Model the fold of this input.
Amino acid sequence: MIDADPADVRRPRWGRRLGAAAVTLALLSPWWAPPLLRPLAFFRVRHVEIRGWRYATPAQLVARLKIDSTFSLWDDVAPLEARVRLDPQILDVRIGRRLPATLVVKVVENDPVALVPSSRGFRAYDATGRLLPLDPSRTPVDLPIINRRDTSLLRLLGEVKAGEPTLFARVSELRRTGRDELVLRLVTTELSVASVLVRMMVDVSVDRLAQISSVERDLAQRRARVTELDLRFKDQVIVRLQ
Done:
């Protein structure tokens, strides 16, 4: 990350006054001020602030910017945004300015939704099927496992994460058991039941999956220990008890 201690940037008093005056002109004259102020050393970028990151590291994103000590706060930031967007982990980026010498980089990341085993260990994928540069061995993530890159399953997990995040947090595995059938494994807090299997069709909706919570609450009130829920039949939830 580009950084500089303000105490290390020494200027004579007249230089500070000139800089303050330039800032005022920049604020009052946004159209013609940048071309005039760009050559001034006072506006050379000395700080980069990264916001919104979780998996991509600030150092990784600053390296993508490829700016040097001559880059001015008034230089065009569009090429910088384009370079950051090349990172597979980044969905979108907006770069702003904070006077006199700070770039503010706001990123939106591609969220991982599943881990897929490979010859190099587990790899993280997003809901579109994109392979992400995230390394689960270095950045611990708690994500469902699918046995291969399956765009239908990844899309379903993305929809569950967006619509039912509490349910998504319980998903440990999703796999196909037939051409049109899936099995979802949910972790449970019950000591007597390690997990609950949910059988469903491949075109299951998030609204249909949301019924799981209400069924489990009803069964808990009856002190029933459920091991399997079957959602394959329309308007029915078939329960298998321990």
